[in-house]
Structure formats: C-alpha cells, structure tokens
What we know:
With 267 residues, the chain is of the alpha/beta class.
Amino acid sequence: xxxxxxVGLSDVNAVYDGPEGDLWExxxxxxxxxxxxxxxxxxxERAGIGAGMRGVDLCCCxxxxxxxxxxxxxxxxxxxxxxxxxxxxxxxxxxxxxGLADRIRWVQADVCASGLPDASADFxxxxxxxxxxxxxxxxxxxxxxxxxxxxxxxxxxxxxxxAGLSDAEAERFLRFMKxxxxxxxxxxxxxxxxxxxEVVEASDTGRFAPYVDLYLQMVDMQLMGDxxxxxxxxxxxxxxxxxxxxxxQTLAHAGKVAQGRFLARRR
Length: 267
C-alpha cells in the first residue's frame, strides 16, 4: 500500500467543500465514480442487492449511489456516512427534491467510526471513495462490523495497478488526488479476509484508462468553459489540473492505477 504523509481528512473536506469537488462532478456527473450508472448497476447485480434490503454507504458523498439503489434496485432504506458538510447538505437537498428523503438518512461522521449499530445492514456499499480514507484497515473493520452475518460488502475503489507505482509517481498522484493512502487489490482482499469475510471477487474492472481518456476529451471538446467558470476563470489553474490529469492518464495506461471491484460476504 502506498501512503503520503501530511494529507488527511481536512484536505479531503477541502476538496469537496470547494471548486475541486464541483469540477469532479462536472466531469463525472452526480455519480462521482468511474463508470457512473453502468458501474453501479454492475456492482449491485454482482452483489445481489435488491428489493427490501437495508444498506449503508460509507463515503456516500452527495448520495447519488444511495438514490440509485433506492430507485433502481428497490432497496428499502439507505444510510449514508460522510464527513464533508457540503456534500451531506447537498445530498439531503437532492433527496428531498427527488422525493426519496423518507428512505435515505444521513450521518455526518468519520466513516471509520460511524456510530452505527453492529450487524445493522444487509450490505455495505462504496464507490471509488475509500481511497480518501487513510486507515484502510480500520475502514474495512467498520464495514464488517456494520454488516450482518451473511451480508455483503460491495465496493469499487481506485487502487494501485499491477505494474506498481514508483515512490515519485505515488507521491505526485496521491498529492494531486488528496489520497492519504492507496491500497492494491491483494491488500483489500487480505483486509476483508482478516475481518471474517469470504471474498467473492477482487478484480480490476478494466475501466480506468478509457474513462480518464473520456474525461480529458470532454473538457477539451465541450466543457472547458464550464471548468473555467468553476475555477474562477483561472486559465493557469485549469492548465495545472489538466497537466495532473494527463499524468494520471499516463499512469492508467501503464497499468499503475486501476479501478478495483470487491465483493465479500460476512461469515
């Protein structure tokens, strides 16, 4: 697992309280994860998530994943946990606007210490967000504590790819993304197993590189004006962000960064 000192929860909060979070939503939509709707549906189908189930979304951001699960998988209820005030309030408003507030509740807290009851969920969910959590071991332990025996932990996340990152590459990438740590697929598998889970799947989705290509192409061909508006029309800042995204693109195509998919059942 790669790590970077000096990056923590306050830095992540600053991203999603400010223009960077808005920029990610411009590129990815409300479902701020690689693959959007298709990725969510794929994960839910593989995990067997469906009608009547109760779920917890750790690092739920604006709640788009929860709204997806309630609307398209007929999940009975969702509880979202996130530490960033801006996205929690925005998520509450969107749930009200979409008429889903009665089935979705919010907890503003550290996801490693959510305060939710033991064995209270049929499944725990996450989409490309656990990379923002420094203590991956504590996070997986919390997920395993919350889910009932026989329940499912289902998540995608940005991970170190099979080619591996050099120390210099890891430092630049983690600093740009505000990731305190970056796990790999084998590391997540081991953490799940250590917490009493049977790992059903731990794999690379293969989506990362083509989607980074897409995001860069979208800005270049269509969304540059919108991106500049979010950044206060600061062209130098946009060029700097584009440079880091181009670096990310290089890492992705070299197999050094990937999107992992994980399904595990609590024994």
